[in-house]
Amino acid sequence: MANTIHVDVVSAEEQIYSGEAEFVVLPGVVGELGIYPRHTPLLTQIKPGAVRIKLPGAAEEELVFVQGGYLEVQPHLVTVLADTAIRAKDLDEKAALDAKRAAEEAMQNKTSKEEIAHAEAELAIALAQLEAIRKLRHRA
Predict the structure, then answer these.
(1) What is the model's pTM?
(2) 62/51 Cα distance (integer angstroms)
(3) pLDDT in tens, 36-74
(4) What's the CATH number of domain 5-88, 2.60.40.10, 3.40.47.10, 3.30.750.24, 2.60.15.10?
């Protein structure tokens, strides 16, 4: 039996993934995080991007897009509490491209710091979705 860690990926709407994994890779706020079984306990914020879950005995990884949230790691349990979580195969490329264009336009047309910050956040989310879609296509 492979050495595994239990992974739960949940959002406010639903549980996206629950099961065993050989390892998990997540988008941390200061860089990518790799979590293996018996990892030291950790609580940190994650940013928008793809969560890669390596399933035991499978060649491919499960990809889940998260829109940010928190990661809790215990030696035999990883919990991802996401603001929003979507299976990568369910992402809509056209909607992500439209959101990217709208955020870029908003950044050019806004004058207050708050409006610019909001547009930058929307752009980061759209770019992270497009990157997750790119990773999914690259695997295929």
Answers:
(1) 0.73
(2) 8
(3) 999 999 999 999 888 999 999 888 888 898 988 999 999
(4) 2.60.15.10
Residue 84's SS3 state is: coil
Instruction: Tell me the two tokens of residue 67.
Output: 């829109």
Question: 80 near 7, Cβ under 8 Å?
Answer: yes
Could you tell me where the beta strands, DSSP code E, fall in the chain?
A: 5-10, 15-21, 23-28, 31-35, 42-54, 61-74, 77-82, 85-87
Measured in whole angstroms, how far is the alpha carbon of residue 135 from the centre of its chain?
12
Distance CA 40, CA 125 (A): 29
Count other C-beta atoms under 10 Å from residue 75's C-beta. Answer: 11
Q: Terminal CA-to-CA distance of the chain, rounded, Å?
A: 27
- Distance from C-alpha of 64 to C-alpha of 132, rounded to nearest angstrom: 8
d(CA 16, CA 69): 14
Give me the helices (H) in 27-88, please.
Answer: none
Structure tokens at 98: 């439209």
